[in-house]
């Protein structure tokens, strides 16, 4: 990792570092102030505004992206910490002419109103379905020792609790996810 | 966010050397630290990224215990087959915390080092002895509904937010530490956290530059294990009160019990008083209630949080009943 450091204040130094990671299948090289969050790197430096900034504190889930296949909050991680990682954002899941099954299901079920939380909801749902398949337990799992998860509505709601929707489209978000679960399309 | 320099540690020795620099802090998942840095409550001048150190493994120990590497994510630890079958209280505690996104990112070591969510600690306009030693405590006499009822001081009534630490307290886990002298030591979870006293900004017994490398679970204890968390909403919230209980019970008599509370103190609160009240006694509602009264005998409310005393008692009774029932089913 190449870094350049310049003093800026009495109590600290600003540092710029090179970082390379793949975003939606394409390797991107950036030179960033090390303070840059992954979210700001995506939105401000890579022109990928699909990932949304809601609270910027890890409380709303609007910034959810997939890193090496796992959903995380892009606001609470530094871009420089993602050297070599594979990142997928809403732009990488599907396009208007070729929607991801979850995108199509959200449209079909009207799983949004204002739409601001939707990219995070959909990325989160993609990660969530993979977690269910892998048998990752949740707070709604009656017997955490059981390696199989029965994806009940209670399980889906609990597993999606990190994504807030201020319009309260929750019933339709649940319906959209349930459709994809039944169809097996995710 | 204040400026800092960043380095990725290549091995534990380099990490502790870098962490010994003045103003340095370790970062792994970053889910709490980066938030506090954005608010300028934490102001490290150097960040040492330990997330890629080879400390992710979960391994069975020769004595039948289990060692969870400090860099394992909360989700990996929760989903591990050995953890969920032999130490279900750990899995239950982990999945009761945060959101799936945060659990995917947050490390086990970082979970144990997260700071309190006392709103006055977060409000830089308010007085806080944790943030600014000597400034006073705005929570005492303030809106203190979420605050401590046990072991608090006149300097601080904040609570420890970790669910994991509560389960570890009931299991008598040890925290494995690696220091700048390249020595490894283990500290019992019961000795790892400090009560606030006059120095609430000093939260653990970690020495300068020391790093958590793992959590060591002793061989799984017999009986039922249950973690129960009570909060203001059904998911994705910190505990008002939580209880971890490990109960061995046969033919209606409790052979042994280990009990720890969360959300009530500056540290996970193991209750030896409750355990003594339970051992050898019948597993009945009256017995559970007697243990709960013993556990909370020294509790002090601060006004808004008075309800937590009764809530803690009832939560303990419910948790013990469930753990005893499980123990009976498997005995």
SSE diagram, text form:
The complex is a heterodimer of chains A (186) and B (331).
Chain A: E1 3-9, E2 12-23, E3 26-33, H1 38-45, E4 64-67, E5 70-73, E6 86-88, H2 90-93, H3 101-109, H4 118-133, H5 153-159, H6 170-183
Parallel strand pairs in A: 2-6
Antiparallel strand pairs in A: 1-2, 2-3, 4-5, 4-6
Helix pairs in contact in A: 3-6
Chain B: E1 5-8, H1 12-19, E2 24-27, H2 33-38, E3 46-49, E4 58-60, E5 66-69, H3 74-79, H4 81-86, H5 88-95, H6 100-105, H7 108-113, H8 119-122, H9 164-171, E6 174-178, E7 184-188, H10 189-192, E8 211-217, E9 224-230, E10 241-250, E11 253-262, E12 269-270, H11 272-278, H12 285-295, H13 307-330
Helix pairs in contact in B: 5-9, 11-12, 12-13
Folded structure, characterized:
The complex is a heterodimer of chains A (186) and B (331). By secondary structure, chain A is α+β, with helices and mostly antiparallel strands. Chain A is 31% helix and 20% strand. In chain A, strands 1, 2, 3, 4, 5 and 6 form a 6-stranded mixed sheet that branches. Chain B has helices spanning 12-19, 33-38, 74-79, 81-86, 88-95, 100-105, 108-113, 119-122, 164-171, 189-192, 272-278, 285-295, 307-330, and strands spanning 5-8, 24-27, 46-49, 58-60, 66-69, 174-178, 184-188, 211-217, 224-230, 241-250, 253-262, 269-270. In chain B, 56% of the residues are buried. The interface between A and B is large, with 49 and 40 residues.
What's the Cα radius of gyration of chain A? 18 Å
Main sheet makeup of chain A:
6 strands, mixed
Helix content of chain A: 25-40%
Supply the helix-strand structural class of chain B.
alpha+beta
Q: Report the principal-axis shape of chain B.
A: globular
């Amino acid at each position: 990792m190449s870094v350049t450091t310049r003093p800026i204040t009495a109590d600290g130094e600003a540092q710029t570092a090179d970082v390379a990671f793949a975003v939606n299948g394409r390797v991107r090289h950036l030179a960033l102030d090390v303070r840059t969050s992954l979210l700001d790197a995506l939105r401000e430096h890579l022109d990928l505004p699909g990932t949304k900034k809601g609270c910027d504190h890890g409380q709303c889930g609007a910034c959810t992206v997939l890193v090496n296949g796992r959903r995380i909050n892009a606001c609470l991680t530094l871009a420089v910490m993602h050297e070599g990682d594979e990142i997928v954002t809403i732009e990488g899941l599907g396009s208007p002419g070729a929607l991801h099954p979850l995108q199509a299901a959200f449209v079909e079920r009207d799983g949004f109103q204002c739409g601001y939380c939707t990219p995070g909801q959909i990325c989160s749902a993609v990660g969530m379905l993979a977690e269910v398949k892998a048998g990752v337990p949740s707070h709604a799992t009656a017997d955490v020792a059981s390696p199989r998860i029965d994806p009940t509505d209670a399980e889906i709601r609990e597993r999606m609790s990190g994504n807030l929707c201020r319009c309260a489209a929750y019933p339709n978000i649940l319906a959209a996810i349930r459709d994809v679960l039944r169809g097996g399309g995710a | 966010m204040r400026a800092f320099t960043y380095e990725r540690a290549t091995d534990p020795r380099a990490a502790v050397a870098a962490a010994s620099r003045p103003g340095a802090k370790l970062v792994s998942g970053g889910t709490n630290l980066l938030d506090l840095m954005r608010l300028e409550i934490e102001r490290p001048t150097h960040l040492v990224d330990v997330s890629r150190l080879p400390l992710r493994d979960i391994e069975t120990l020769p004595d039948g215990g289990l060692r969870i590497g400090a860099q394992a994510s909360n989700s990996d630890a929760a989903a591990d087959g050995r953890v969920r079958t032999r130490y279900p209280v750990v899995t239950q505690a982990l999945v009761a915390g945060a959101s799936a996104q945060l659990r995917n990112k947050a490390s086990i070591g970082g979970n144990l080092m997260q700071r309190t969510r006392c709103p006055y600690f977060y409000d830089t306009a308010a007085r806080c002895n944790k943030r600014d030693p000597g400034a006073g405590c705005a929570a005492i006499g303030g809106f203190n509904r979420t605050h401590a009822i046990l072991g608090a001081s006149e300097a601080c009534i904040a609570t420890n937010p970790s669910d994991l630490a509560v389960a570890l307290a009931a299991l008598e886990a040890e925290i494995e530490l690696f220091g700048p002298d390249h020595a490894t030591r283990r500290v019992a979870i019961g000795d790892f956290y400090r009560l606030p006293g006059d120095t609430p900004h000093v939260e653990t017994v970690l020495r300068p530059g020391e790093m958590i490398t793992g959590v060591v679970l002793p061989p799984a204890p017999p009986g039922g294990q249950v973690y129960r968390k009570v909060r203001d909403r059904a998911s994705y919230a910190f505990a008002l009160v939580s209880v971890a209980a490990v109960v061995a019970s046969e033919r209606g008599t409790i052979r042994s019990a280990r009990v720890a509370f969360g959300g009530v103190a500056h540290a996970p609160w193991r209750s030896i008083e409750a355990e003594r009240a339970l051992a050898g006694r019948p597993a009945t509602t009256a017995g559970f209630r007697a243990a709960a009264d013993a556990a909370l005998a020294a509790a002090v409310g601060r006004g808004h949080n008075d309800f937590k005393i009764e809530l803690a008692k009832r939560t303990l009774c419910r948790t013990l009943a469930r753990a005893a029932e499980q123990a009976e089913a498997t005995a």
